[in-house]
Specification:
Blueprint: H1 3-32, H2 48-60, H3 65-86, H4 91-112, H5 119-131, H6 137-164, H7 175-184, H8 187-225, H9 239-263, H10 268-296, H11 299-313, H12 315-330, H13 343-367, H14 372-382
Helix pairs in contact: 1-3, 1-11, 1-12, 1-13, 2-9, 3-8, 4-5, 4-8, 4-14, 5-8, 6-8, 6-10, 7-8, 9-10, 10-11, 11-13
Organism: Pseudomonas imrae
Protein name: DUF418 domain-containing protein
């Protein structure tokens, strides 16, 4: 493999590792706050600082990092196509097996650890991308833009309809009380809550996240076909011009959504703002990704890239590890700290978990070529046992 190809793969892995930080920063709220994604604000957040932190999380993290992860899924799809071609193997059976295995892992993850999981959505949407594998990059980009515009317009219309019916702000949601009771109780209560909520939550997640994730799959596929990440320094001259309009527009849409999520959740206002936020979220995702690529190609950022790459290389294992750690901290599987940790303290907890994963990933990959779940997924994909330990 050439040096340029190695650079590309390391940067793709490092971007994926960076995306894991954003996903952890969002998912910790689903474990720590029973009112997260509810129709009402947490009554325990009495201070302005609590609401400000909630606003900043919605502004900078929510609906941004799963889009980056989705983009990288689409990009990696093209790398898998190339790998199958080099091996002179049929790509479609490989990919179908991979997606079925991912679906099974997602459903088990959702039933046991986190009912809000996204792996099953990726598994099904990956089959859609497989069916569209012969699209030209230009057509894939047009389909992605159309999907985002149409979907977000529907959300905005739905928000207006909710408002016309008099539901601008949500009513009391009793699921928060059930979640608080379950996570504060025994491991069996937590397991029952996850398995019960999974069937209710998955269809909602497919509707909320599916269209945007598929659009980013297509964007990533188009980027992979054109090898945009093979040498990102080639378009450095235009990068700042790009950021001058992606960053302000992305932040503007995100700010409207963040205000409603923090202060007026659950009604037509949040639904309308969600539509605007989803429309501009890809722009902020682009901003994050481009800034990280520029950083990776600097003298200081080369070291950061090397630190993040092991996390991204075993992203599946790390994603499930995050759910397991958060479950031990906040649910009946362990300490049961749900609704006991102040919002400000959640930020250093995210940093601590992420640094722990960074060290464990580097340690593991020093001895193994793949993460444990990546190894399993590769075995199913190839119908062969990959090497478990590094040799030589």
């Amino acid at each position: 493999m050439t040096s340029a190809a190695n650079t590309r793969l390391v940067q793709v892995d490092a971007l994926r590792g960076f995306a894991l930080l954003g996903i952890l920063s969002v998912n910790i709220w689903a474990f720590a706050d029973p009112y997260y994604a509810s129709t009402t604000s947490n009554p325990a957040y009495a201070g302005a600082l609590d609401h400000l932190i909630r606003l900043l999380i919605a502004l900078l993290f929510e609906t941004k990092f799963y889009l980056l992860f989705s983009f990288l899924f689409g990009y990696s799809f093209t790398l898998q196509m190339a790998a199958a071609e080099r091996a002179e193997a049929a790509f479609v059976p490989r990919m179908v097996r991979r997606q079925v295995a991912l679906l099974a892992l997602g459903l088990v993850h959702g039933a046991l650890l986190y009912y809000g999981e996204i792996l099953s959505t990726y598994a099904l949407l990956g089959l859609v991308l497989l069916a569209a594998r012969n699209l030209s990059p230009a057509r894939a980009g047009r389909w992605a833009i159309g999907l985002v515009v149409v979907t977000c317009s529907m959300w905005m219309v739905l928000g207006l309809l909710q408002g016309l019916e008099g539901t601008w702000i949500g009513a009391i949601n009793h699921d928060a009380a059930q979640k608080l009771t379950a996570f504060s109780g025994s491991a069996l209560q937590t397991l029952h809550f996850h398995s019960q909520q999974l069937a209710r939550t998955l269809p909602a997640l497919w509707i909320l996240q599916g269209p945007s994730a598929l659009a980013m799959f297509l964007f990533g596929y188009a980027a992979g076909r054109q090898q945009w990440l093979a040498s990102p320094w080639a378009w450095d001259k235009r990068v700042w011009q790009l950021l001058l309009w992606t960053a302000p527009l992305g932040l503007l849409g995100a700010f409207g959504y963040a205000l409603t999520a923090a202060y007026a959740p659950g009604g037509g206002l949040e639904t309308f703002a969600f539509g605007i936020g989803q429309l501009t979220a890809p722009l902020l995702t682009i901003t994050y990704g481009v800034l990280m690529l520029v950083l990776f190609n600097s003298t200081v950022g080369t070291r950061l890239c090397a630190l993040l790459a092991p996390l991204g290389k075993m992203a599946l294992s790390n994603y499930l590890m995050q759910s397991a750690v958060l479950g031990l901290l906040f649910t009946g599987y362990g300490a049961g700290w749900i609704n006991r940790i102040e919002p400000l303290l959640l930020l250093p907890m995210v940093a601590a978990i992420f640094l722990l994963q960074m060290g464990l990933s580097a340690y593991w990959l020093h001895r193994h070529p793949y993460g444990p779940l990546e190894w399993l997924l590769r075995a199913v994909t190839l119908l062969a046992w990959p090497s478990w330990r590094r040799t030589g």
